[in-house]
Amino acid sequence: MRDGASLMTDLRPLQVPSGIEGLAELRAGNLGxxxxxxxxxxxxxxxxxxxxxxxxxGATPDPATRRTQRDQDAYxxxxxxxxxxxxxxxxxxxxxxxxxxxxxxxxxxxxxxxYSATEYDIAPITGFPGQILELGRSCVDARxxxxxxxxxxxxxxxxxxxxxxxxxxxGCASLTGTDPDALATELTYLYGHxxxxxxxxxxARRERYIDMRRLDPAHIDPRRANxxxxxxxxxxxxxxxxxxxxxxVDSQFNTTDVAIIVKTDxxxxxxxxxxxRQSRDLPD
Length: 284
Fold this sequence. Notes:
Layout: E1 26-28, E2 31-35, H1 39-56, H2 63-68, E3 80-86, E4 96-104, H3 105-111, E5 120-121, H4 123-126, E6 131-140, H5 147-164, E7 166-176, H6 184-194, E8 203-204, H7 222-227, H8 231-238, E9 242-243, E10 248-250, E11 255-263, H9 270-281
Parallel strand pairs: 6-7
Antiparallel strand pairs: 1-2, 2-3, 3-4, 4-6, 5-8, 7-11, 9-11, 10-11
Helix pairs in contact: 5-9
């Protein structure tokens, strides 16, 4: 699911970031997950994002986006692009069926801030003493949406986190629709059950702040509320995610966004243990 609106200013030529050596493709049958290694693979990810966000989900493109049929902003040139590839279609850009955008501190510094800072005060996150990583622009082709692809994406994120010694993941995740009252159950549940501790809690920017406490928590069935959440947000919660204070309405993309925070030391997923064992087994 998309993480926020496009920034179509200060566009830089797309490139393949360096510093990703050692991350081999991970396979599950005909599907593989790896970091984009060519300009054409990055372009395929941008085209996939356009098809899903604008053609399928009804976001409103600006003239440049409509002309190029690419969901592109300034951050794409400084990000690593995680790809799911269907090798039955092809091993390169023609096979891209899923993507995630990963931005490290150096990339954000090149732009001036992380993308999430356009919606949230993320000072508690940027002040974190360890390595941080912003996740966003996640989407999967409709024919491939299911647990297998999401698990493969998380395997890729796990490998990336271990390789780069990331300690904190964050980003924005979206609920469909721009009426907070229509999303009252989900927002109230997230605030009441998954609010980040103060030391890590971003807050929606004052001019965009939407109070998430829209219902009496006593009237909410937590299990039902969780089931109402989009799959991406449920996936984050399963690995121990917190949410920030306040939602943000994104009219261009017809979404209501929430901030997501995950400390990687909270994640006990088998993939992280796998990469730790793999590292210990490597010869000196």
